[in-house]
Amino acid sequence: MGLHHLLAVVAALSVAAVSHATTPVLVIHGGAGVIKRDMNAAREKAVRAALAQALRNGYAQLKAGKPALDAITAALTVLEDDSNFNAGKGSVFTHDGRNELDAAVMDGSTLRAGAVAGVHRVKNPILLARAVMERSQHVMLIGDGAEEFAREVGVTLVDPSYFRTEQRWQQLQKALREDSQDKPHADGETARHFGTVGAVALDARGQLAAGTSTGGMMDKRWGRVGDSSIIGAGTYANADCAVSGTGWGEFYIRTVAAHAICMRVSLMHVPLERAAAEVINQEIPAMGGNGGAIALDARGHIAMPFNTEGMYRGWISSDGVPHVAIYDAEPDVGVGAQDGPGG
Q1: Residue 16 resides in a domain
Q2: Which terminus of the chain is more exposed, N or C, with fewer CB under 10 A?
Q3: 110-143: per-residue pLDDT in tens?
């Protein structure tokens, strides 16, 4: 083969590679279990704005050609820093009046993962979870050990008072009164078991990642850890599928929900939307649980099933416009879009 012929072949292959480049996609959630009567116009506006900003920050990474993990952490730190979500600042309180935070990330292309649980001084647990994956030989670190690791690798620590908000404190006081009077909670288990932030991303190389961060269950006791930081339960990604869950964590652990969705996609070749719906809207409710999830496959298909009144959620892709929604049956409205609702 002559040099000119070889160069022509290389050029043709390069064009083909570019033409088949994957369109990046980012999907996020800010927790299921939304109760419409508890919302007001100001909070709804703030939530929608935060979701849109998280999408913009994450998508900027994807647009720059960065890996899916960069989009995950860029998006989730926005939500961890916003007190409207049960993750980072604004996390719910334990029975003992503490904030104990959990988080996990997973790289679908390598199956590497990192997680932290029961931390109370880490400003952005999602960053520490990624550091565990990339800078340690372990997958999960908990409590004081996780915070010592954070010091060693330079992840920001804060005074525990940073996480406190008056709204979350009053929610705990109400729960404690109901506990002492042996009363059922006003909204069943909704206020206790919901509130998590998560993201799944597909980058230009066609690689997937997932991440989840949470303050856990309100009024939780005895060092309880939910599904968010457990790889396969609330967070999972492989080459075909990425999932982040939000809901009653005990049921997501028992069904290994995130992994179950991806195994349907990878091994059984079930379409993503059906796979996610089977686990979230059939298996988990059949056991007595509820919640939601976001899922993304390697072809850019999105699923956002939930079985509660609402779920903070959003996505962004090639048009660069954040599409966000809160309530059931609400279209995913493009924030700043000129053409109304997005699909």
Answers
A1: no
A2: N
A3: 999 999 999 999 999 999 999 999 999 999 999 9
What is the rounded distance in angstroms from the CA atom of residue 158 to the CA atom of residue 163?
Answer: 9
pLDDT tens for residues 190-230?
445 567 999 999 999 999 999 999 999 999 999 999 999 99
215: containing domain: 26-333
In a domain, 217, yes or no: yes
Structure tokens, 318: 């090639």
157 in a structural domain = yes
Q: Is 196 a catalytic residue?
A: yes
Average pLDDT over residues 274-301: 97
Total of domains in the chain = 1
The residue with greater pLDDT, 176 or 182, is: 176
Other residues' Cβ atoms within 10 Å of the Cβ of residue 340: 8
How many other C-beta atoms lie within 10 A of the C-beta of residue 94?
22
Token pair for 223 = 């060092």
Please pick, among 73, 77, 190, 196, the residue that the annotation labels catalytic.
196
Would 33 be classed as within a structural domain? yes
Backbone angles phi, psi at 217, to 5 degrees: -95, 130
What is the per-residue burial (b if ≥16 Cβ within 10 Å, else e) of 156-172? ebeeeeebbbeebeebb
292 and 304 Cβ atoms separated by less than 8 Å = yes
Residues 6+ apart with CB under 8 A from 221: 94, 95, 96
